[in-house]
Amino acid sequence: EAMLLPALAAFMRANPGIRLEIDASDRLVDIIAEGFDAVIRTGEPTDSRLMGRGLGGFCHLIVAAPTYLAERGRPQVPEDLRNHACLHHRHPGTGKPEPWPFHRKGHDLAVDLPVAAIAATAQARAFLAVEGLGIACVPAFVVAPFLSDGRLVEILAGHVRSAGRFHLIWPAGRNLSPRIRAFVDHMVAHADPPPG
Fold first, then answer.
1. What are the angstrom distances between the C-alpha of 67 and each of 60, 93, 147, 171?
2. Residue 132 has what pLDDT?
3. What confidence score (pLDDT) does residue 82 get?
4. Predicted structure pTM score
5. Which end of the chain, N or C, is less packed with Cβ atoms under 10 Å?
6. How high is the pLDDT of residue 195?
7. Angle, alpha carbons 109-110-114 (nearest 5°)
8. How far is residue 48's CA from residue 50's CA, in Å, rounded to a whole number?
9. How far is CA 1 from CA 26, 75, 114, 167, 188, in A?
């Protein structure tokens, strides 16, 4: 949400006649049944009733507070996290803690991590990490302020796949109204290139 708010604000300024209603949630909404005009989410649309366009890319970081690392030690490889307090995100589709995006020598690396807490939002996981309660895997744009002021530090940087991408999704087969077409065009125009 934080990464997309400037583009949403710019849309409102450029289109004062269009009322924008923002519903921010990690819940996997049913776009058609719940009557959404458009949804921004990670991952590509898998439902044939939906259309989508790629928006900005983002990367995940593994972060912890300096106080936590001073007390518990600094993990050197992903397997070291088995002895740490890990702060997880519950996958909205499966309900299980979402795997962290580790890799080794170009291949995905699955590590069975302990669960100290599960939080639905990246902001909540970042807050718990800032408080020294564990290590979190979060999008870089969420924790950028905490990294810049030293409340969090990045760890295991060479072990994390960097690519994630937002998609703008809307119901297929529906003639887009001018207001929704304006929103789609605006958000695509303001999209960032995927991370390198």
1. 21, 34, 14, 47
2. 97
3. 96
4. 0.71
5. C
6. 45
7. 135
8. 5
9. 10, 29, 27, 13, 16
pLDDT value at residue 93:
66
Instruction: Quickly count: other Cβ atoms within 10 Å of residue 7's Cβ.
Output: 18
Cβ atoms within 10 Å of 80's Cβ, excluding its own? 15
| CA atoms lying within 13 Å on the CB side of residue 111 | 21
How many CA atoms, within 13 angstroms, populate the side-chain half-sphere of residue 164? Answer: 18
Q: Tally Cβ neighbours within 10 Å of residue 39.
A: 19
How many Cβ atoms sit within 10 Å of the Cβ of residue 178? Answer: 8
Q: How far is CA 147 from the centre of its chain?
A: 17
Please report how the helices 5-14 and 178-189 are oriented relative to each other, as an axis angle in degrees rounded to 10.
130
Q: For residue 90, what are the CA distances in angstroms to 17, 28, 144?
A: 38, 12, 22
User: Whole-angstrom Cα distance, residue 153 to residue 79?
Assistant: 19
The ranges of the chain with pLDDT < 50 are 194-196
- Distance between CA atoms of residues 125 and 152, nearest Å: 12
pLDDT in tens, 94-132: 778 888 999 998 888 999 999 999 987 888 999 999 999
CA distance 88 to 74: 18
Q: How far apart are CA 28 and CA 92, in angstroms?
A: 6
